[in-house]
Amino acid sequence: MTAMTTNVQGQLEIGGVSTGELTAAYGTPLMVYDEDMIRRNARAFRESFIESGLEFQVAYASKAFMCKEMVRLAEEENLSLDVVSGGELYTALEAGFPAGRIHFHGNNKSEEELVMALEAGIGCFVVDSFLELELLHELAKEREQQVNILLRVTPGVEAHTHDYIMTGQDDSKFGFGISTGQADRAMQIALCKPHYNVLGIHSHIGSQIFELDGFQQAITVLSDFLQSVRLECEVTLPVLNIGGGFGVRYTEEDKPLPISEYVKAITDCVKESFGENGYPLPEVWVEPGRSIVAEAGTTLYKVGSKKIIPDVRTYVSVDGGMTDNLRPALYGAKYHAVLANRPNEECTELVSIAGKCCESGDMLIWDLKLPPVNFGDTLAVFSTGAYGYSMANNYNRIPRPAVVFVKDGESRVVIERETYADLVRLDR
After folding, report:
1. Topology (CATH) of 53-293
2. Which of 53, 131, 196, 227 has its CA 20 to 30 A from that of 275?
3. pLDDT for 102-161, tens place per residue?
4. Which residues does the record give as substrate binding sites (predicted)?
């Protein structure tokens, strides 16, 4: 979770700015990012790969959190960029991100999205289906373009994570299965397409992964697959993209490894597996998103009503909820929080944090120990930097919150708070 200190007034600070100052200036709910932490995490990936001696690319998975300022930060930290929709691609291009460092994912890219990406001259398409394999090539042929592609394959590895965020098993909407023979068939088709430059393969086994064995198993399967392609098709493909999914700490129960340990395990396994096959060491690509931004984000809420049900539960309601953090309702994600205006007081109450939406399932945290909670207190929920704002919605016609970056005692808005006028702007 983001590094915080308490100032002389007894308030939490983020990036040298007090949470009281932040809420006074920008209101609540407010999503606050520690810019230094984002940059440290990005650099940790790059520095660990440099130490490995392998060629590499680190692409920020923009689905975790994206806005133009985040894109500019990724460019400044020498990251590539992973996008999964026309909207993410548009944002990247509007922010001036170099198109040649953009990778385009997605299991159902539309023709319009593919044309947009071709016209922008992006660096790589991650092809996810037989339909896309044909459609993208026809569009490239019409434009007389050579297109770099990776084939997304499923290695049949099930990561130890929530069912909704497992993607590497055979039964997945993503990619070509290796064990089913679909990956081999797709590779043979792709290699025969004159407007394709097949760089290699892509795999992503899931998200919020704390153990190394899933990555290691996947790399062994992928290495063997590339070796079989080499022997059957007489081609050596230079890129292995093993995706992301590196775990982060949401609560004290979570025990993620340091970024350097994830990278070392991956690169060591690549060296061993490819070395055993006598295959030239590939350029390794990874796509961290959550592990770069999650713990750098904190959401600040204003406490509203409090409902005490004797011998049952105490509900404390805040002025946000599933509209700015859908993860608890979507798949039971857990978070930790404190009272930002009184973080050092003894925690004597067991409460549950409720959102303001008209849904019984709009609960942010169950069974949280806090000091006695009063109307107007500020609740700080930690590690909300990934899949919070990017999943934000306008259910109950609630405007989405503002987002600010803080650094060295200064704060700046990177996404303005939505207004009621914004909510009806497209209505007719």
Report:
1. TIM Barrel (3.20.20)
2. 196
3. 999 999 999 999 999 999 999 999 999 999 999 999 999 999 999 999 999 999 886 554
4. 290, 327, 331, 359, 387
Amino acid at 161: T
Residues in the chain: 428
pTM over 0.90: yes
User: Residues comprising the binding site for pyridoxal 5'-phosphate?
Assistant: 245, 287-290, 387
In the Cβ-directed half-sphere of 20, how many Cα atoms lie within 13 Å? 12
Assess whether 358 carries a catalytic annotation: yes
- Largest Cα–Cα separation, the chain: 73
Cβ(402)–Cβ(414) below 8 Å: no
Mean pLDDT, all residues of the chain: 94
Rounded to the nearest 10 degrees, how much is the dihedral formed by the CA atoms of 330, 332, 338, 341? 20
Q: In angstroms, how far is CA 144 from the centroid of its own chain?
A: 34
Annotated binding site for substrate: 290, 327, 331, 359, 387
Question: Measured between alpha carbons, how far is 231 from 360 in angstroms, rounded to an integer?
Answer: 57
Q: Residue 290 phi/psi, 5° resolution?
A: -55, -45
- pLDDT tens-digit map of 369-389: 999 999 999 999 999 999 999
Beta strands 239-241 and 297-309, pairing class: unpaired
Report the candidate in 28, 9, 30 with the shortest Cα–Cα distance to residue 298: 30
Which residues in the chain are classed under CATH 2.40.37.10? 4-34+296-424
